[in-house]
Prior knowledge:
Elements: H1 3-25, H2 28-38
Amino acid sequence: xxxxxxxxxxxxxxxxxxxxxxxxxxxxxxxxxxxxxxxxxxxxxxxxxxxxxxxxxxx
Length: 59
């Protein structure tokens, strides 16, 4: 077994891992969690900007 055999098996292992990640990401079990995570920026409480801070006088 030489280095080229190792590289071939390494490529096959990485491809199997890639397919596993794709199947996990597109599974119906993960759909709700990913949807909830995608909505996080829209669920934050908005705080009004206060332009009249003490000691910050721009005249």
